[in-house]
Each structure stands twice: as C-alpha cells, then as structure tokens.
Write a structure and sequence with these properties.
With 250 residues, the protein is mainly alpha-helical. The chain contains 8 helices and 2 strands; from the N terminus they run ααααααααββ. It has helices at residues 4-15, 25-55, 65-108, 118-146, 156-179, 184-193, 195-209, 214-234, and strands spanning 237-238, 248-249. It has a two-stranded antiparallel sheet with strand order 1-2. Helix 3 (65-108) packs across helix 8, helix 5 crosses helix 6 and helix 6 (184-193) crosses helix 7. The longest helix has 44 residues, at 65-108. The protein is elongated. The relative contact order is 0.16. The chain crosses the membrane at residues 23-43, 63-92, 195-219. It is a multi-pass membrane protein. Belongs to the CysZ family.
C-alpha cells in the first residue's frame, strides 16, 4: 500500500536521481525568486496588518484579547501562506507539469496520455492554474471573512488547516491528472472518492511547504509523489456519468 509519506519519500529520491534532476532546476529558481520577494514584502507589512485586525475587535471582547491575538496571527500567517502558494504555482505550473510527465515516464515506463506539444502544454498549464484559482479563491474569501467574525473566528485556524490540505492535494495531484486528460471536475471527484489518501497527501505537502528554504528543494518531490499517488490510487477510478454518478474502481 502506497501511503502519502512513502510516496513523498520515493518521489523526492526520484526527482534527484541522475535522469531527472536536470528538470528540477527551473522550478527551484522560480520558487526561490518568489519566496524572496514575498518574504521581503510580508516582513515589512505584517505588523501593520495585525494591528488593523486587532483594532476591529469589539470592546466587549477585549477580555479575550489574549486568545484572539494568537488566532489572528495564525489566520494571517495562513492567508500569507496561501497567497505565496498560489503565486508560486501559477508561475511554476508549466515546469511542474513537464516534470510530472517525465516522472511518469521514468516511474511507469510509459508516457502520459497527453499528446500536446511543449508550447501548448505550457499555455494550457497556465489556463489550468486559472481554473484552480477560480475554484480556490471564492472558498478562500469565505474563510477570510469568517476569520473576521468574532467567536466564529475561533475555529478559523482549524478550517484553514483542513482547507490547506485539500488545496495542496488539488494543486499537486492535478499535474499528473492534467497530463492524462482528466478534467478538473473529474479530478475533484477522484480525490473525493479517495478522500483519505487525498487529505493525508495534502497535509504532508502543507507541512513541507512550511519548512523555510528546504521547501524549495522538497516541493519537486511532491510533484513526483503526486505521480506515484495518481498511479496507485486514482488512475483506476472510473468516473460515473457526466451528471455526477459515483466513481467506481476499475
């Protein structure tokens, strides 16, 4: 049984093997540039953002400031994390898609079903990222609003954590599925059908993303792990009718 942690371990070793490590360089450089720019911006504005949030706490809740303050900090950090993640993957998507295709060929001995050329694959990858943004941003905005509502915001960090695991799964597992002509809607149905591998994989990737600097070198391994997870858990699912029939294992 291939679990998420095993897939990440095997995937990281795989992308740094002799045949694949040259495909990792560009994604790392892109992530490093975005990481540096975002870190510089956040460090310069984080204090002001936090003060603005705390100023909105009503007077009758001031006695809970000892609890609200750390919750605001956690929520703000999570929002910054999501913003960084979305920007990074929007830029790096073409490189990750190509890396996933090479990993699939290396790991399974057969290429993905995708027969598009390199240029079209890169352009379509950007379009796919915009589709992901259309799915993620409304839900992210809803959680953001919830984070501002007194009392309800006490559960916001937990919701952000669960949401981050789901979104990381969508972000990375979509690379091999896109390469194999799985639509975004069908991809989400496959992930729901295997919800436990999906959330454990997304949770581990979320933890990796939080490791400063090291995450730049570990995230390509998450792409390879997504290919291994696709092969083991999702490829054999036969999606029901277009009207939303239940997925079935083949």
């Amino acid at each position: 049984m291939l679990d998420a942690l095993t897939a990440l371990t095997r995937g990281t070793r795989l992308v740094y093997s002799r045949g694949l490590r040259r495909f990792v360089f560009l994604p790392i450089v892109v992530n490093l540039l975005v990481y540096t720019a975002m870190l510089w911006y956040v460090l310069g504005h984080f204090g002001g953002w936090l003060e603005g949030w705390m100023a909105m706490v009503p007077g009758w809740l001031e006695w809970l400031s000892w609890l609200i303050w750390p919750l605001f900090v956690v929520s703000l950090v999570l929002i910054v994390f999501f913003t960084f993640t979305l920007v990074t993957h929007l830029i790096a998507a073409p490189f990750y898609g190509f890396l996933a295709a090479r990993v699939e060929l290396e790991a399974t001995g057969r290429p993905p079903l995708d027969d598009r050329g390199l240029a079209k694959t890169a352009m379509d990858a950007m379009g796919r990222e915009l589709v992901k943004l259309g799915y993620i941003l409304p839900r992210m905005a809803l959680l953001f609003v919830l984070s501002w509502i007194p009392v309800l915001n006490l559960v916001a960090p937990l919701l952000w954590a669960a949401f981050s695991a789901w979104i990381m799964a969508i972000t990375y597992l979509d690379y091999p599925m896109d390469n194999n002509k799985v639509s975004f809607a069908d991809m989400r149905r496959r992930l729901k059908a295997r919800w436990w591998p999906t959330l454990t994989y997304g949770g581990w990737v979320t933890l990796i993303t939080w490791i400063p600097l090291a995450n730049l070198f570990l995230l390509p391994g998450a792409v390879a792990a997504a290919v291994l997870m696709w092969e083991r858990h999702y490829r054999g699912i036969e999606i029901g009718a277009a009207h939303g029939g239940p997925p079935q294992a083949r």
